[in-house]
Amino acid sequence: MMFPARAALAATLALPLFAQAPAPLRGYPAARIAEQHALEAKARALPDPVRARRYLEAMAADPHHAGSEASKKVAQYAAELMRSWGLETRIEEFEALLPYPTSRRLELLGPSPYTARLFEPFLKEDPDSTDTNQLPTYNAYSATGDVTGELVYVNYGIPADYEQLKKLGISVQGKIVIARYGRSWRGTKAKTAQENGAIGCIIYSDPHEDGYFQGDAFPKGPWRPAESAQRGSIMDMPVYVGDPLSPGWASEKGARKLNRAEAVTIMKIPVLPISYADARPFLEALQGPVAPVEWRGALPLTYHIGPSAARVRLAVDFDWTTKPLYNVIATIPGSERPDEWVIYGNHHDAWVNGAADPVSGAAALLETARSLGELVKTGWKPKRTIKLALWDGEEFGLLGSTEWVEKHRDELKKKTVLYINTDANTGGRFGVGGSGTLEAFFAEVMRDALEAKDRPEKSELAPLGAGSDYVAFVHHAGIASLNMGFGGSGGSGTYHSIYDSTAWFLAHMDKDFVASRKLSQVTATALLRASESAVVPVGFAAVERNVRQWITGAKDKLDIAPVIAELDKLAPLAAAYEKALAANPNLSGEKLARLNALLIGAEQALTRPRGLPQREWYKNQMSAPGLYTGYGSVTLPAVNESLQLGRMNEAQAGIAELTASLAAFRSIAQQAIELLL
């Protein structure tokens, strides 16, 4: 303990010699900046790593896949917590086609037969590995099927690999293919196999990407052990996400549904994931040419391409039933602008226990919710309404968030200022992607909420593709969105396995829950900054810069002059808007309401009603998940992806659509400036 006199002296010496002016806040009048910084600092002091660990241990205690009673219990647990913190909370129920496997069989026939175990064994170091009600290893939205044929190794199973096979004179027509995880999303591997005439697809985790080659395998290290396999959906998400039977409308009890044959996002061939222990006998059975060096994995065998002399049998079946989804929605009503919403979401469902994916992110969201609840208890109320969501069914194909957006689409488009998304949060450096309209806003959030060592080198926001619950918000409804989290701290080799457990997480990931606290601090700062600002935190400059960069690859193939002309008009307006905003941050009354309504529509101006070529559900012209890149984004997809696929007419039509979007976006900038002047 320090003596009082010495404490007073120490406090005096700790004061700066000259008071420092608070960092500027875009869109805030000078008189409110210090108060806002103080509010945010108070919120950042509240997240507690001990509490975050408690949430993770509770939510990841049992397997809780979407559609299960355990998933409902996790939703109820989170809802009760948020109610206990004084937040108005409800569970909003939807339903979706959620196929669970009823049979799985993979056999190598012939003189050296082998039947795949398709089982992840108990590890004494991981008590949860013996939990009951684990979903077995499978790929959701595989077709039911029982096929037998020769086997061909297709490397990562991406389009370029099939081009290489054609050069080698090897066909997969009528054959079963085996691909390794990596370089693309699993659904791309299944779709590409299907399009090239394969009758079945096996996807395995090669240790070169996901096991001992990368580091020590669990339990010694964080990487995938030999008999572990990666579950996962293979829904054709680049076409649309959400319930396969209700594309574009909410899937609720009594709502109309497509029949399963009409659902184009369900694969037409059987697909199954396996471990590298199970994969080895199948790879050893391959004949034909030795695989190129870049095709070789890290198993102790010579990698051949095939085909195999022995035949392979792949048989899978599913129950194909509709099951419930439970979204948890907490609301803190706005005191001045209740019809303007700031939303933050993370999913709660997991393939098994899901300590990292998604509970590490869900725990951080809960601490953000508790922190805001503590502020409410002091008498604070947000100026805009804040909503916090824990989505269900993300793992199957972003089901819960998509159905919620489709149900509330018109209201969301009218009211939502921005959507913040998080997911697995395992530690390491901070990463963020998002809408260019939010870049200037979030640069200031990172400046104030992150230590210098955690900040990305650049404040530019990476374009969004797919892979988490922001998709329906930004790509379908045109709502400005951010996706963020701490990652890259080490191996993620238990991804979608029974070993994504509390024991694994505490041994190898964010064991002190420092990343959980940091993420809560960032999201709380962003929510407060966006909810308290007078003016919706949208900017125009990053969009102009991005499109100018992204269109350059098309200049030798298409007439991009109309796009460049719009960008040349937008550039000075983007700068003029920032100047006008800085000069007049005290706007109020009807003018402010009109300005905010305009700015809420800015991201929507970058969408087109008829959507992207051959996938109308995706509306945003700035980016989308690529048809063959899976989670990875394609920028200006109506133009650039059409060019990549050789669809010149579609690409030129994309130029017209992009020009129209930029003109509408520019008009919003012009009107916003006029309101500010």
Task: Describe the protein's architecture and organization.
There is one protein chain. The termini are far apart. This protein has three domains: 45-98 and 322-532, Zn peptidases (Aminopeptidase, 3-Layer(aba) Sandwich), CATH 3.40.630.10; 101-318, Glucose Oxidase, domain 1; 541-676, Transcription Elongation Factor S-II, Chain A, CATH 1.20.930. The protein has helices spanning 4-14, 30-44, 49-59, 69-84, 159-167, 186-195, 207-210, 276-284, 355-377, 394-397, 399-415, 439-449, 471-476, 502-508, 514-532, 541-550, 561-583, 589-600, 602-605, 637-644, 648-676; strands at residues 88-97, 101-108, 114-115, 139-140, 145-149, 151-153, 176-180, 200-204, 232-233, 271-274, 312-318, 322-332, 337-347, 384-391, 416-422, 428-434, 481-488, 623-625, 633-635. A seven-stranded mixed sheet has the order 1-12-14-13-15-17-16, with helices on both faces. It has a four-stranded antiparallel sheet with strand order 3-2-11-5, with helices on one face. It is globular. Helix 12 packs across helix 15 (514-532), helix 17 (561-583) runs parallel beside helix 21 and helix 18 (589-600) packs antiparallel against helix 21 (648-676). The chain is built from 21 helices and 19 strands. It has 677 residues and is α/β, with parallel strands linked by helices. The longest helix has 29 residues, at 648-676. Residues 1-19 have low confidence and may be disordered. Strand 13 (337-347), helix 9 and strand 14 (384-391) form a beta-alpha-beta unit.
